[in-house]
Design a protein that fits this description.
By secondary structure, the chain is mainly β. About 10% of the residues lie in helices and about 30% in strands.
């Protein structure tokens, strides 16, 4: 006679469960007591949809972005959630299949296209995901949900409505930025991203978004590069997750976790790679500060 024992880490499966949006905020159960003077909202985002039709997403970072809001008022807390209407989400729901490749899930060509249409689609370039499931942060008076690509999604913090997509690469010279910026007390936002320049030169650019100023213009339009770090490997930039910021210094660490650009730009289209397939380790490199 045999018996099965659930592994202590078996609860991880809960992370991959698809949930539905809420039509209206719901009242939560509070254990203990929340001070009546505490008032405000906590915004978070993460994956919330793990399959489209019969096609599953294979990685935690691939689930479609779900925005969460906890509102605290007079000792009570309400909870609300809505999916962010990114292009990858809307197109997936409309076409009932995964349309844009995610970190660990490859999007196969549209089966309705003939072989010639698929062939030309392969060479139209990499379609980058805008699945803003990692973080939410303020810029001026606005709030943006983000992932680690060049797309930010402006959201309404009151009703969690998706307002617009912003391509930061059209404003400043970066091909993507991290989801973990630093925000100073006056509202200045610092972030870092890869930059692919002329003759395949690669660098890491620190970008600065100023706080809202007297002219009331969108601070995002005033984003600028303030410093550049050269890449130690011409064809393989390091994956950049974050950086350090002190009152006087920017601290950048170039790690041995590399992105193979040749694979990213060619094999991606030809043999069906995803983002994760383009990562590799340079074990002899060490760390550069």
């Amino acid at each position: 006679m045999s018996s099965q024992v659930e592994h202590p880490a078996g609860g991880y499966k809960k992370l991959f469960e698809t949930v539905e949006e809420l039509a209206t905020p719901i009242t939560t159960h509070v254990t203990g007591r929340i001070p009546v003077w505490l008032r405000g909202s906590l915004l978070r985002c993460g994956p919330g949809l793990f399959e489209v039709g019969s096609e599953p997403f294979y990685h935690l970072f691939d689930g479609q972005a779900l925005l969460h809001k906890f509102e605290i008022k007079e000792g009570h807390v309400t909870y609300y959630r809505r999916f962010i209407r990114t292009d990858c989400y809307v197109r997936a729901i409309t076409e009932k299949r995964i349309v844009i490749t995610e970190f660990g899930t490859y999007a196969y060509p549209d089966p309705c296209k003939n072989i010639f249409s698929r062939f030309f689609t392969y060479f139209q370039g990499v379609e980058v995901t805008d699945n803003a499931l990692v973080n939410v942060y303020p810029v001026g008076e606005d709030f943006y949900a983000c992932t680690e690509t060049n797309f930010l999604t402006k959201i309404n913090p009151d009703n969690l409505e998706t307002l617009k997509k912003v391509d930061i690469s059209k404003i400043v010279s970066v091909n993507g930025v991290t989801a973990h910026p630093h925000i100073e007390n006056d509202g200045t936002v610092y972030n870092i991203g890869n930059c692919f320049g002329k003759n395949f030169s690669i660098a890491y650019n620190i970008v600065r978004i100023p706080p809202l100023q007297a002219d009331r213009k969108d601070p995002m339009t005033k984003c600028e590069v303030v410093v550049q770090f050269p890449c130690s490997d011409r064809f393989k930039p390091s994956y950049v997750h974050s950086f350090g910021l002190t009152p006087n210094y920017l601290v950048f660490v170039e790690t041995p976790v590399k992105i193979n650009l040749l694979k990213f730009l060619s094999s991606w289209s030809l043999w069906g790679a995803n983002y994760m397939d383009c990562f590799e380790s340079n074990e002899s490199m060490g760390m550069l500060f």
